[in-house]
Amino acid sequence: MILDAARAAASRLFSPQFRSVFLKTLGLTLLALVAFWFGIESLLEWLAWPWLQGLLPGLPSWAGWLGAIVAGILLAMGMALLVAPVTAVIAGLFLDDVAEVVERTDYPDDPPGRPVPALHALVLAIKFFGVVVLGNMVALLLLLVPGINIAAFFIVNGYLLGREFFEFAAMRFRPEAEAKALRRKHAGTVFLAGLVIAAFLAVPLLNLLTPLFAAAMMVNLHKAVSAREKA
């Protein structure tokens, strides 16, 4: 069931119906990351460096160049960590478009789902941003612990991604409380599906498509789980 949902989602990623959503998501994500970069760089230049000079007067001139290089490396690492959550937030605004394409093309005889209200979708996207950032911070700390570092990345992201995207797909057909209850009932299946999404997230560049892949996959998985419930 999970592999079927993943295959169906992957087959849709580069279809013409998904192309417009992907281009909008990619463009807004790049704009947001550029804004983050210049915003943080300006804060470092205007606040951090003058504060450091005041704290340690008499720094040699080469210290400024060294500080700029270190700050650039840290900033690049920060941007790498922000790619996934920023993409998730922006794509969260278009997930209903993805779900509608999957439902219309793969399940034409089923009643269509109801779009999540715009304000609720924005709240969910912001909440998802928070849990993904928190989860990746925990996973990053665990990277320092030999033996569990890679496992920590997959476990944390598998749980968070599986939970959030399954509940999104379910809420198109059910009240929020019922969607959460269904996710808890099938927690093992949802977690394993989340691991597939986490593996997708681990691939550079391809991870920009993670929210679209995850939404399409979980629409298919919710359909399969709902059919099993009825049976």
Automatic annotation (TrEMBL):
It is a multi-pass membrane protein. InterPro entries: CysZ/EI24. The keyword Membrane applies. Keywords: Membrane, Transmembrane, Transmembrane helix. The chain crosses the membrane at residues 21-40, 62-95, 116-134, 140-162, 190-214. It comes from the Bacteria. This is Sulfate transporter family protein.
